[in-house]
Amino acid sequence: MLGLDVDHFGGGTGLCKVPHDGPELGVVNRDDLYKRWLRSKGVEFKVEDNLDLIVYKEAEKIFLNKWKDETHFIPVKVLSDHTLSR
After folding, report:
1. Using CB atoms within 10 A of its CB, is residue 33 exposed (0-12), middle (13-18) or buried (19+)?
2. Hey, how many other C-beta atoms are within 10 angstroms of the C-beta on 60?
3. How confident is the model at residue 42, as a pLDDT?
4. Of 51, 57, 46, which Cα lies nearest the Cα of 3?
5. Per the confidence metrics, is the pTM higher than 0.90?
6. Which residues sit opposite 78 in a β-bridge?
7. Residues with Cβ < 8 Å from 48, sequence gap 6 or more?
């Protein structure tokens, strides 16, 4: 599953363009990978849609549903003063 476990590179899914010298390795087949993954999850989309955003939102939904609905617990960040932050 693509998702929040590998996320938070500015809201990206890990296949976003990262500035570097040379060709955009890992991005060449990005849209094909996104389309296959979205179809496997039964998510409808149009070719002109922002696939980055759709994949991100679907992965977020899967992640949050797993924690909220299955375990009834949403992971949080524990701050240095031992308080919780969502």
Report:
1. middle
2. 14
3. 95
4. 57
5. no
6. 84
7. none
Report which of 86, 54, 55 is spatially closest to residue 68, judged by C-alpha positions: 86
As given in the structure block, the two tokens for residue 27 are 């991005």
Cα–Cα distance, 79 to 83 (Å, whole number): 5
Look at residues 37, 68, 66 and name the one whose alpha carbon lies nearest to residue 54: 37
User: Under 8 Å CB-to-CB from 38, ≥6 apart: which residues?
Assistant: 45, 51, 54, 55, 58
pLDDT in tens, 60-86: 888 888 888 887 877 777 788 888 776
Q: What is the pLDDT of residue 3?
A: 45
Per-residue pLDDT tens digits for 1-44 = 444 444 444 444 555 555 556 655 556 677 888 899 999 999 99
Supply the angle between the helices 51-65 and 30-40 in degrees, to the nearest 10. Answer: 40
